[in-house]
Amino acid sequence: MLAIVATSAGCILTKDLPDPALDIPHGYKAARTTADTPPTLDWWRGFGSSELTGLMEEAQTVNLDIAAATSRIIQADQQARIAGAALLPSLSANGQKTYSRTSGASSSGLTNSGREVINYSSSLSASYEIDFWGKNRDATLAAEETATANRFDRDVVALTTLTSVANAYFQVLAAQDRIRTADRNIASALRILNAIKERLKAGTGTDLDVAQQESVLANQRAAVPPLRQTLAQNVNALATLVARPPESVNVKGGSLNRIASPRVTPGLPSELLTQRPDIRRQEAQLASATANVGNARAQFFPSIQLTGQGGYQSSALVALFQPHAAFFSLAGGLTQPIFDGGRILGNFEYTKAKQDELLQTYRKTVVSAFADVDNALVAIRQTTEKLRLQREVLAASRRAFELSEQQLRAGTADIVTVLNTQLTLFQAEDSLSQAQLARFLAIVSLYQALGGGWEPRIERPANAL
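Above: the chain's sequence. Below: its structure in token form.
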């Protein structure tokens, strides 16, 4: 019967991960090239900004979210050590001195001084549970996989932090560009206002013309405070990401026009499964849940416990370690659950449902990762096209404004035409900065969708086995 149970247990305790039945495409729908240029580990250097590189490197070492995630790794490692302790026997040393005194009363009513008893003992105790069904082994494996998941969780936090630094930095540059554009627009609007006032003095203009241009100038000035607020907020966000108060952070910034546009291809979808830390985290969590199922299943079977104790016991300390004072005891016990109100069964069904939940979450994470890459590729393509078209809009708008300004000074321009052309130019210039920002954010989103930088591949010789 024992052999039959052992054989059946071996079949039951198969702990291979469930098949996620993933539909992995051969290539990304939005990818135009198959060139093999995956992102490098220091992918942010491709933007050509030394200030951005410095912020990225600082965030990796001092960011508080990354530090907290690192502490969670240590916690998970120690939980795995605690769970693994059940696989080893426990051993404890005991030393004891007892003092007792008997009563001085006797059955005849006489009294005496009683009897004093002193006893000394020293012993070692050991206990061990035979992990015949793999219960403790599965619990240890579950804790180890949880620790692995926490390592990938730290990578997820680090990737999120780095992309947040890049996005905030580009927001700073865009805000600075838009403020400079607004200042130029204010100067242009003021120049047009002065020209209209000259026409008014000459009798060829009206107060309405002046009022309309003053409204344009006021609107341009009113657009500056929100841009300065956006600039300050993103500088403060960078300060938080590098764990410093805003007062001690000085971001010089610059212009998006001086930022390089790195080119990166996404590789194959199958490679994404080993590169995205969130996918690896979900995979480790699924492995942990699978081990928990094995642990819950093993609780249906008997537990076998061995205990032993040996040492010395004597009423005289000088004779404690004599051979005649030695004692020992050995015991073995087997405990088979019979009725527990459904606790073990409920725990088993719970762990199976948890495993299924994590399986579905793992599948969703993989599918979402493919969609993230495709979305980032589409965003890069469309924002690049948007930027090209916006440059054409700006060139045409600038030429139209320059011609209308010339006609205004010559006294042949319609004031409505001048107002329209300058508003179109102001909007085109601001839209260009926003289009540049959108393109850089799309590039960062592709890096994030690919899981950050990839380890360099080791090229194997063609004749290698």
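Residues 11-88+143-301+344-449 form a domain with the Outer membrane efflux proteins (OEP) fold (CATH 1.20.1600.10).
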